[in-house]
Write a structure and sequence with these properties.
single chain, Collagenase (Catalytic Domain), 5-stranded mixed sheet, two-stranded antiparallel sheet, metalloendopeptidase activity
């Protein structure tokens, strides 16, 4: 091991660029060994008379150090996927860290020590934060099977390891399936409808692989763009078939990377785990720490939402069918809906929508959006010029209040081949206070997938890009503005999904505010703002023919719930999907579609929780009514928002929402169906 390992140094901000493959395993091995020593010391000194500092804080510090180091490795892995040594070493680190966590939560002496603290007289004086933190730790032990007989604990350990393997295999199959398909195009007419910038990107794809012309690949952004803009109907159909049959027994790579058996194995393991832990199903287990209190309540909510959207969905389909008929298409297929919705939108509002993104250059938009949040929350967001990073495009914002640094937000804005093709927020460090009263400052990473600048113009954001930016920024602010002093409460990753998505959904509502968008807008050439009249028309146009998107989200959520609520009743995942699709037959998906095989939410932490997007969206809409009443620039409302919702995982979101709005929570969310 080199004399100085950056992963073993104490840091306020990580030394990203200093970390090499040879640092990984030695660092994780050393941290795990140190954590094991700390656990042994805690058991030796705290068993009889445990106290908060020497038990809870000591182990929280140890757990945080390991978790933070693993996050650094995971983030760096996104730019080092071609480094064989790195990939091998990072995989070993994941195994080592997972084994440590299994051993820790199987330690009966440690569990009993936490129990003694909870049952002690000193626990009576704990504040709500401490009580919630301690209860959450004990719950984690119980859900790890600590109270099960030895043979069942052993089986649960094997199940958890197999679940992790199947989840990784699902993702590997999907990645290989994506990589296995491409389509070279030599005739420009085939790309009619695509923008010059997008065609340049496809041409670059071709050059990178030594091909001529343009090259289509299977990624989410390309799929969405082709479905919406490609005039060549046969191209849309071919791409749709390739995309919706990925990693399946259908399509151009049929049975080569089939996730069907993987998913069946995974679902069986999850159900077995739930039953071992005393739950009726995996969905019941998953929801045990969520706001929704049962799968029945979630199903009731989703079916209500389906009924709410059914009329608009049918109206939109009729309008699109009538419009398509005028364009020579007698019957709409699955690969036609987005295209004709966009064509109809453009026909009605072309002058309004054309060039809209020219008013939202990334640099200026981000700068102004930071100013908006400074005003709203009474904070300072200062971009730092001197920083270590994992890619040259990465930026760093220092978040402060009253000249005191509160945390940091990294911004990784652009699409890269080696990065995920979707936006997300990573949490590097959760806020916590150590035994000496010193805070560890929270850190978040905002990953986006925006198009890079070209020789002709800077990065320009579409309205969809604005929604993504606002959504992820909301998550980041919740991570860094929390006042919770405890590691296992303060991070957004510690929240149930239906609570954790709330801040992102609330901030996404800002993308519909004419007041804010006009203030943010500045043409990248002329510096002129958008007129209010044009902005009103643009938002109205953007909001048309969106019912299919809503219906698709509800289909995904109901399917996810149904998969995890019952043990299939003899059905495989595809048969379950077909059953759920009958709830929304208007979506008209072809029989060869194998949606489940590439539905990565099933293996990335959203299993039995996909409903959270719609659930939190409904709650966020209720909360945003306060801003519609007070104005989005009302600083007092912003302060109350921060106070109500950014307190960590110690207060019910229902309670926070009622405090903020002064109204009871909507009955279809708060009530359990009969």
């Amino acid at each position: 091991m080199p004399p100085t390992n950056p992963l073993l140094q104490r840091w306020q901000l990580p030394a990203w660029s200093d970390v090499k493959a040879e640092h990984l395993a030695p660092a994780i091995n050393a941290i795990v060994a140190d954590n094991q020593r700390i656990i042994a010391e805690v058991i030796a000194t705290q068993t009889d008379h445990p106290n908060w500092d020497d038990l809870v804080i000591a182990l929280a510090e140890a757990d945080a150090r390991l978790a933070e180091t693993m996050v650094l490795i995971d983030v760096l892995s996104t730019v080092k996927s071609a480094d064989v040594d790195w990939v091998e070493q990072s995989a070993l680190c994941s195994i080592t860290a997972a084994r440590y966590r299994v051993q820790k939560f199987a330690n009966l002496e440690l569990y009993h020590t936490y129990q003694r603290l909870q049952q002690s007289s000193i626990a009576d004086s704990f504040d709500d934060f401490r009580k919630a933190s301690l209860a959450k730790t004990l719950r984690a032990f119980r859900l790890s099977g600590i109270e099960l007989p030895a043979d069942q604990r052993q089986r649960l350990t094997a199940i958890n390891l197999d679940i992790e393997f199947q989840e990784q295999l699902f993702q590997i199959n999907l990645e290989r399936s994506n990589a296995a398909w491409s389509k070279q195009i030599d005739h420009a007419a085939t790309l009619d409808g695509l923008s010059a910038a997008f065609k340049d990107r496809l041409a670059l794809n071709a050059r990178r692989t030594g091909k001529s012309g343009w090259l289509l690949t299977l990624d989410r952004n390309t799929y969405e763009y082709i479905m919406k803009n490609a005039r060549d109907r046969s191209l849309r159909e071919e791409y749709f078939r390739a995309y919706c049959t990925r990693a399946s027994d259908q399509g151009p790579q049929a049975l080569q990377f089939d996730n069907g058996p993987v998913l069946q194995k995974l679902l069986g393991l999850r159900h077995e785990k739930a039953r071992l832990l005393g739950f009726e199903s995996f969905a019941h287990l998953r929801l045990s720490n969520h706001m929704a209190n049962s799968p029945a309540q979630v199903e009731h909510f989703l079916k209500q939402q389906i009924e709410h959207t059914r009329a608009s969905l049918e109206q939109d389909i009729q309008a699109l069918q009538a419009f398509a008929a005028t364009q020579g298409v007698a019957e709409l297929q699955a690969w036609d809906f987005e295209f004709f919705a966009e064509q109809l939108r453009q026909q009605r509002s072309a002058s309004t929508l054309k060039g809209l993104r020219e008013y939202f250059p990334l640099d200026e938009t981000l700068r102004r959006f930071c100013q908006f949040n400074e005003h709203l929350f009474g904070i300072k967001l200062a971009e730092q010029q001197d920083l270590s990073h994992w890619h040259e495009d990465v930026r760093l914002l220092e978040v402060s209040e009253y000249d005191q640094v509160m945390g940091y937000i990294y911004v990784d804005p652009f699409h890269r081949e080696d990065a995920p093709d979707f936006a997300l927020t990573n949490t590097v460090r959760n806020r916590r206070i150590n035994a000496e009263g010193r805070p560890a400052l929270p850190i978040a990473i905002l990953h986006c997938n925006f198009p890079s600048a070209t020789s002709e113009h800077p990065c320009l954001l579409s309205h969809k890009d604005l929604r993504v930016l606002f959504h992820e920024f909301g998550h980041c602010l919740q991570q860094v503005l929390t006042r919770s002093p405890h590691h296992n409460l303060s991070g957004i990753s510690q929240l149930g999904r239906d609570t954790g998505e709330f801040a992102g959904q609330l901030f996404e509502q800002l993308s519909l505010s004419e007041e804010l968008l006009q203030w943010l807008s500045v043409h990248y050439k002329t510096r002129a703002p958008l007129s209010r009249t044009r902005l009103t028309s643009a938002l109205a146009a953007i909001a048309t023919h969106t019912s299919r998107d809503t219906a698709t989200l509800l289909l995904e959520a109901l399917f996810d719930l149904e998969l995890h609520r019952s043990e299939e009743n003899g059905r495989n995942a595809q048969q379950c999907f077909e059953t759920v699709l009958q709830q929304i037959p208007q979506l008209q998906l072809p029989a060869y579609c194998r949606f489940a095989n590439s539905f990565d939410y099933l293996v990335t932490g959203y299993e039995a929780s996909v409903y959270a997007y719609k659930w939190s969206g409904v709650l966020a809409s209720e909360a945003f009514k306060r801003f519609e009443r007070d104005g989005v620039f009302n600083a007092q409302t912003g302060r109350e928002l921060r106070e109500a919702f950014f307190s960590g995982d110690s207060t019910s979101l229902f309670s926070a929402l009622e405090t903020f709005t002064g109204q009871p929570v909507a009955a279809d969310l708060a009530a359990q169906p009969d």
